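User: quick one, sequence for these tokens?
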């Protein structure tokens, strides 16, 4: 762990595939819901920016405490930035796959370590890197059973699973003495640069889909204004961005503003939609007290190889499945979609 002007700078890990998938399997990846995310290319992570965001993270509300108010990475951001679907079944199952070598050979024809670049291997590789937290010691094959029935792969909420692990890692990194951070940190950094474009300019590159595919210049965290001047509450409404968004994304908009847990096997994190209503163009009212569930928050798969998390967390799975009962009242707020002047202070 390094320090910068008295602040800690976290070591981070972020990977995407370093090669293009074979064109023959792209149609299958598209059907499964991974056709866009596998095209994301690696870009440089800015450890100082990631660390500054962690310092502003509130573990109780899962929001960043900014001068303008609470804001956070939402299910909308996951879909817009990564092209992952959020409407679907919970990503969960057993910690340990029984006879993983048998399952691997049945699905892959060989071990993933042999470098097979087929559909299952590409999907597993991405899941292993971006869905895992550093504190987990479980083997990476727990996702394989979810990929066995190809017709059902696209029915899972992979986007909410990514968000669950990112929330978990933000909470873990907030603790004293933690020096590193994993999960999909590219999403975290790209979210910040889209919401606060004053942090960094873009190198004359047009927008592309998924939106995370941008080549930003070096962010400067010293440019954070004392109010919300420059913060884009609705950063995807600009015409040059909106025209890139596929139609299926808008069909899932009903899922973006809900009050529900998000899950990924042992990970359970609460998605407090009523605390960041302005990110959906709605009036922000006084939010309710955040949900507290200390008995499961921070739980990992370490030492729980026989646990079936779909049973262990069945109450949270039920809440996710009943998301339509957990939508807040939304009142459209007519404000400019450009950076606004210090509304938090009433001026």
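Assistant:
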């Amino acid at each position: 762990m390094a320090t910068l002007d008295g602040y800690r700078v976290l070591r981070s890990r972020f990977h995407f595939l370093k090669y293009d998938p074979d064109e023959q399997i792209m149609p299958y990846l598209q059907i499964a819901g991974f056709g866009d995310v596998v095209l994301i290319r690696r870009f440089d992570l800015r450890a100082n920016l990631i660390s500054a965001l962690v310092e502003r993270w509130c573990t109780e509300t899962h929001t960043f405490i900014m001068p303008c108010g609470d804001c956070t990475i939402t299910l909308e951001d996951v879909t817009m930035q990564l092209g992952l679907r959020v409407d679907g079944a919970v990503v969960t199952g057993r910690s340990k796959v029984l006879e993983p070598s048998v399952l691997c050979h049945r699905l892959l024809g060989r071990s993933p370590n042999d470098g097979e670049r087929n559909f299952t291997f590409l999907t597993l590789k991405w899941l292993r890197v971006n869905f895992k937290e550093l504190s987990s010691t479980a083997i990476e094959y727990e996702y394989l059973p979810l990929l066995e029935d190809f017709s059902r792969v696209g029915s899972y909420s992979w986007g909410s699973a990514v968000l669950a692990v990112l929330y978990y890692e933000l909470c873990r990194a907030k603790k004293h003495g933690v020096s590193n951070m994993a999960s999909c940190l590219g999403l975290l950094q790209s979210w910040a640069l889209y919401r606060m474009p004053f942090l960094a300019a873009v190198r004359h590159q047009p927008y592309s889909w998924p939106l995370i595919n941008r080549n930003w210049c070096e962010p400067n965290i010293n440019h954070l204004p004392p109010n919300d001047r420059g913060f884009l509450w609705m950063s995807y409404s600009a015409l040059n961005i909106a025209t890139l968004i596929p139609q299926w994304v808008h069909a899932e908009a009903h899922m973006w503003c809900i009050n529900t847990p998000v899950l990924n096997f042992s990970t359970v994190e609460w998605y407090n939609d009523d605390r960041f209503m302005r990110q959906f163009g709605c009036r922000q009212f006084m939010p309710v007290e955040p949900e507290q569930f200390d008995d499961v928050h921070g739980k990992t798969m370490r030492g729980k190889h026989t646990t079936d998390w779909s049973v262990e967390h069945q109450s949270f799975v039920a809440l996710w499945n009943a998301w339509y009962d957990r939508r807040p009242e939304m009142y459209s707020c007519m404000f400019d979609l450009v950076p606004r002047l210090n509304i938090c202070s009433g001026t």
